[in-house]
Amino acid sequence: MLRRAEPGDVSAIAGLDARCFDQKWGELQWAKEICSRHAHVVVLVVSGHVLGFTCAWEIMGEWELQRIGVAPQARGLGWGERLLAGDIECAAARGCRLYKLEVASRNEVALGLYRAFGLRVVGRRPAYYRSSGDDALLMSLFLVEDGRPSR
Questions:
Q1: How far is CA 58 from CA 52, 98, 120, 121, in A?
Q2: Nearest-angstrom CA–CA distance, 138 and 102
Q3: How far apart are the first and last CA of the chain?
Q4: Nearest residue to 35 (alpha-carbon basis) of 62, 55, 12
Q5: pLDDT along the chain (151 residues), means of 10
C-alpha cells in the first residue's frame, strides 16, 4: 500500500535510506521533508513494514524526484515501478507540467526504470557524485503539453 508518510515513519524511512544510498539523509532531514509544504513523501508499506519510499518536491508547476528507494530484500518485485508510477500520477494530478530527476550515469537499473516510464536524458553534471566520481544525468518527462497530458 502506498500512503503519505507520517512523522511516525521517520525512523523506518531513515533506516531504509541508509541501506539504499551512500550519502544518506538522517532522521532530522526526513522529519523536515515530511513536514515541508513543498515536499511529498510517500511510503510503500507491506505487511506493516516500510519497504520503499519516494520524496519529491513540487515547485512552481514542476515535480522533482529527490529520492526513491526500495529495501534490498524487496527489489526485483515491481515495487520500484509502483512507487515511480504513483509519484508520476501524483505530480500529474496536482497539475505539474514537468517531472524531473537526476540519477548516477552508471546506475543501469534506475536508468532502465526511468526510461520505461518515458523519462529522457536532458543534461549531465560531470563527476557530480563524490563517492563514486560518477556523472549525474538529468532526466525529465513532460506531463502536460499544450494544456493536455502528454502520456
A1: 20, 10, 19, 20
A2: 4
A3: 24
A4: 55
A5: 97 97 94 96 96 97 97 96 97 95 96 97 94 94 68 53
Closest CA to 135 of 90, 86, 101, 102: 102
CA torsion, ordered 128, 76, 83, 74, to nearest 10 deg: -100
Query: pTM for this one?
Result: 0.92
CATH of domain 2-149: 3.40.630.30
Q: How far is CA 26 from CA 19, 29, 54, 144, in A?
A: 12, 5, 15, 34
Whole-angstrom Cα Rg for the chain:
15
What's the CA gap between 142 and 133, in Å, rounded? Answer: 29
Amino acid (1-letter code) at residue 125: R
